[in-house]
Amino acid sequence: GAVVSQHPSRVICKSGTSVKIECRSLDFQATTMFWYRQFPKQSLMLMATSNEGSKATYEQGVEKDKFLINHASLTLSTLTVTSAHPEDSSFYICSARDGERGGLNEQFFGPGTRLTVL
Amino acid sequence: AQSVTQLGSHVSVSEGALVLLRCNYSSSVPPYLFWYVQYPNQGLQLLLKYTTGATLVKGINGFEAEFKKSETSFHLTKPSAHMSDAAEYFCAVRITGGGNKLTFGTGTQLKVEL
Question: To the nearest whole angstrom, how far is the Cα of A30 from the nearest Cα of chain B?
Answer without folding.
Answer: 13
